[in-house]
Amino acid sequence: MTENNPDLHLNVDFEIAFKHANVAICIVGLNGKFLDVNPEMINLFGYTKTDFLSKEIKDVTHPEDIEISYNQIEKARNSDQRKIKLLKRYIHKSGKIIHADVSSTLLLDQEENPLYFLTYINDITKLEKSEKELLVAHKIAEDNESKYRLIAENTSDGIFVTNKEGKIIYVSKSYVNQLGYTKNEDVGRGPDEIYNIIHPEDRDNLFKSIYKAIEEKKESFKYTFRVKHKKGHYIWREDNARFQFDEHGEHQQSIVICRDITDQINRQEEIKTQLKFSEALNEIAEVIIQNNNTGELLDNTNRIIAETLDVDRTLIYRISFKENQIFALAEWIRKGYEDIEPTKDNYSLDLYKVPFTRILNTKKHLSSHFDDIDPVYKQDNSHILLHQKFKIKSLLWYPFAFDDNEFYVFTLNQILQKREWSVIELKFMNSVARQVTIALMKIKFLEEKKAYEAALENSNKKLKKAVKTAKENQELTNKLIATVPDIIVRTNLEGDIIFVNDALSKTFPFLKKDHVLGMNMRSFIAEEDKQRIEENTKLMFETPLGVQEYKMQAGGDITYEISVNGDVVRDSLGWPQGMVYILRDITSLKEKEKKLKIALEKAKESDRLKSAFLSNMSHEIRTPMNGIMGFTQLLKEPALSGEEKENYIDIIEKSGQRMLGTINDIISISRIESGQDEISYEITDINKVLQEQFEFFETEAGKKGLQFSYDSSLSQDVSQIMTDKRKLENVLTNLIKNAIKFTSKGSITFGCTKLKEKETLEFFVKDTGIGIPENRIDAIFNRFEQADIEDTQVFEGSGLGLAISKAYIEMLNGEISVKSSVNKGSVFSFTIPYVTANDIANEQTHLSHEDSSEPLEDLKIIIAEDDEYSIEYFRSILESTFKELIFTKTGRQTIEAFHNNPDTDIILMDIKMPDINGYDATRKIREEGKNVIIIAQTAFGFEEDESKAMSAGCNGYISKPIKKDALFKLIRSLIPKK
């Protein structure tokens, strides 16, 4: 992602070139809109980065050049010509005109689809101005020459006159000053002498043109050439000759006005040179950006430099004092110079220790010539290699990229002739050095990247491909950032947001991307976390902090929980440029964590209680079992008295009753949880139930010295109701047993009253026992809780009594509650509906009508059962009712029996059988018989077993032990579905 425009994602190696290039670079979309600009672009036009990103090309282009600009864009998009070069005018923010040399390239993706234009803009405003001034000067000169034949002696232009033989007969003072010769030296020069001071490359063409003009009887002739100054150098001169002819047309003399245009020519050459250097720098920048191959990149760079400066050989070396080596990185030799010996080898630094030490110390370039060897070369005889072995006439070492013990050097060789390096050429080399520094950084990056990818190739080829694709396809990277679910935010060093991806609005619809740009990142952080994020931001400059969590205040009073992973964005030199954050909304996750913590606590509590329950169950089973086994062994003793035997048998009986009670509680709670325990209504005499409970527990209460009584306000006619007597008795038994167990002194009272306004019966059991702590009252009806009550005294029991009682009361559509005080006692009360016998009769009549179905006598049934006693049981309850019974003992036999009897109406399928279990047998039978009724029967009796049976294809489910009435009721309910 470029720093100037985070929405545009380019190669990492482009970042450095883009920022540090000394030429204006912009990236323009196919619609002419600016996508990104570099700092030189901002300096040239005066606009800010934000200004550019809201503009198109036409907004900064001179009105007269807009059409040609867009024509060139369309031409590049619709033809094979991808490069655009043109001269055009721009408008500076202040309104002044910028003349520019523009070079633009249309970049394509992997499918050859156009992406955007990469454009270089060179400011040639000053050069344009100079050319115009020269043109004006030329015009003035031409006007003057047309008006005047003779120029005054004090004019700045020189004047000389030749006779018809071409000999100089007059020279002006200004002419003498132009060439430095004396007047006597100039006057009398003939054509041959004049010919000799003309530059060898200009002589023949100049004299040929003059003679031709005279021959054609032209009145005037203007020509430009180089003439030798007395000091030995050449100056550029523009001569305007006027030829005079006699009446016969014979040439008599020539009057020549001479103007020294050396400065003008030099300025023009400087303009051309600057344009040439600018184009070369643009080309080098494109080579660096577009080439990922080290050899090609350096070879092309060397070639461009060599051709631009017209040298014979260029090289790039790395000079390492640490390794005492000179490493050749690239070399270019002029085509046709095959006899030049290549120098692309590694050398010991000892050969050039002295000159390279000077470069390391001075950080300046170094040059030498064969005929003028600097003393520094003679100190280690390095000139012998440079100027004799390699035949170098002139050499320039231009260093760059210095480190503690090494640097890089760009080497220019002139083989055929001596050469002086001009100031403008050295400036150009400075720019080149900066560009090649970027190239070497790119090489290093590519080498590190290549090594990294090689290390990853064996372990993660897919990741390697993804990384490669991401680097080659910028559009794919853009889409990736656009679609990533996490919020990506880029800020400057002040914390102001300069980029955010689309995930922001998707996560927080009330925050729009355009609105948050420019806002400070910390403005969205809740007040309580502002100081912490500021402190963490400072710490990030020293060490990565990883993921942090903050509260986010945005969109009104709503507070969000967000996770933030941030890092410092640095430039190539390590200077911090801003921050990048990855944000994720974890509000719902935090809520889930809270719920999970609560659930975990509950699970831990449940595990703790279950462990306590299992421990208690072990105790409740092993204790009476110990009594049974122990006293059974004692009964075998021959010397026991009759009284001792009676006592032992009594203990064994009580232990058996205790263990039976525990087992009954476990069975009851299991039936309740599996939904198999059903209500069985019968006429119940409440007064009689209370009387029986009193008689049953009176002796046990008396043994503890407790006052034990019951009370009922029900008359005999009201006492008769319809309810499940067994469950009602079970609840009263549990409550009275608990009262006796936890009461050591005082009294226990129980009874029943009728609440007329609610048409319910209310039962109560009141004691003066140890009581229940207030924080435990809600928990005692939970399973396993009795074992969790902390007390100095341990009480026997399963801890399931109250849980079973609560379940039974709820099955009877009633409610149970308790009031208690520690060391004062407890009052348990529960209600059940007051239902008369007539109410139940009406309901049963309605149900009987609903349950009526087809007769069972015509049905054929297959019973899959491998237990002999169960087979006999099924035979005894089914044989007299159904037309035909077929018994099978394995899953395979059951499948074969159905295959041979496809008219079977019902299959009673045992789930646990040899070879093929009931689930798989059901699935196999369903492939042949879609309509046969299959009822799963199992001894397990858990909810998941019923679910698995239904998923396998069963129509119904019944658990063992199987009651005849329940089985027949289930069969009748399924027959209509046949």
What would a concise description of this structure say?
Helices cover 44% and strands 24% of the residues.
Written account of the structure:
With 978 residues, the protein is of the alpha+beta class. It is built from 32 helices and 33 strands. The strands form 7 sheets. It has a 6-stranded antiparallel β-sheet with strand order 13-12-11-16-15-14, sandwiched between helices. Helix 6 packs antiparallel against helix 11. The model is unreliable at 1-7, 143-152, 787-794 and 843-853 (pLDDT under 50).
Q: Describe the sheet with the most strands.
A: 6 strands, antiparallel
Q: What is the β-strand count?
A: 33
Radius of gyration: 55 Å
Structural class: alpha+beta
Distance between the termini: 69 Å
DSSP strand content: 15-25%
Shape: elongated
Key phrases:
978 residues; alpha+beta; 5-stranded antiparallel β-sheet
How do the strands and helices of this protein lay out in sequence?
Layout: H1 12-20, E1 24-29, E2 34-37, H2 39-45, H3 49-53, H4 57-60, H5 66-77, E3 83-91, E4 97-108, E5 114-123, H6 125-147, E6 158-163, E7 168-171, H7 173-179, H8 183-186, H9 191-197, H10 203-215, E8 220-228, E9 234-245, E10 251-260, H11 262-290, H12 294-309, E11 313-320, E12 325-333, E13 347-348, H13 353-362, E14 366-369, H14 375-378, H15 382-389, E15 394-400, E16 406-414, H16 423-457, H17 461-472, H18 474-483, E17 487-492, E18 497-500, H19 503-507, H20 513-516, H21 527-540, E19 547-553, E20 559-570, E21 576-585, H22 587-635, H23 642-674, E22 682-685, H24 686-703, E23 707-712, E24 720-723, H25 725-741, E25 747-755, E26 760-767, H26 801-811, E27 815-821, E28 825-833, H27 837-851, E29 860-864, H28 868-878, E30 884-888, H29 891-900, E31 906-910, H30 918-928, E32 933-938, H31 943-952, E33 956-959, H32 964-974
Parallel strand pairs: 23-25, 29-30, 29-31, 31-32, 32-33
Antiparallel strand pairs: 1-2, 1-5, 3-4, 4-5, 6-7, 6-10, 8-9, 9-10, 11-12, 11-16, 12-13, 14-15, 15-16, 17-18, 17-21, 19-20, 20-21, 22-24, 25-26, 26-28, 27-28
